[in-house]
Design a protein that fits this description.
39% strand, alpha+beta, 2 helices, Bacterial Protein-export protein SecB
Length: 143
């Protein structure tokens, strides 16, 4: 399967609380949803999708878009989608991965503009003793 022509169509973002109000803990939920699948040619189909990063009562980011994928069994995949709103797991996995790889970096910039935490976990640097092993953790070199 080949994914091509991924395009973003709409971006909606909102912060529900003022910047001065800082909640103690924010849970960030990601969701990628396929909203429509249509056959466009004998070996390709258009998929409409929606990505949402929800910050609970703090805010949300929603991105709508489309992509085109090519596969030799497009008619069968589209028919299955129309009938049950499902598609084979390997194909759905590739589509959702492409959506996330495109939308999450976009959502990071939007989150920064709204004063929300980035919708990805930032790496943690820990220096000192490893409590599990009782030893020293080799940390980054500091000049």
């Amino acid at each position: 399967m080949k994914i091509k022509q991924l395009q973003l169509k709409a971006i909606e973002a909102r912060r529900y609380i003022d910047h001065e109000e800082k909640p103690r803990q924010i849970r960030i939920d990601h969701n990628s949803t396929i909203t429509q699948v249509r056959s466009t040619q004998p070996d390709s189909a258009t998929v409409e999708f929606q990505y949402t990063a929800s910050y609970g009562p703090v805010g949300m980011i929603k991105i709508d878009g489309t992509l085109v994928f090519e596969h030799e069994d497009v008619k069968k995949i589209v028919d299955e989608w129309m009938e049950s709103r499902k598609m084979p797991n390997p194909i759905a996995s590739q589509i959702h991965t492409a959506v996330m790889q495109s939308c999450v970096p976009e959502a990071v910039g939007i989150a920064k503009d709204l004063g929300l935490p980035p919708p990805i976990p930032l790496p943690q640097v820990q220096l000192g003793a490893d409590p599990k092993k009782g030893g020293i953790i080799n940390g980054p070199e500091i000049a």
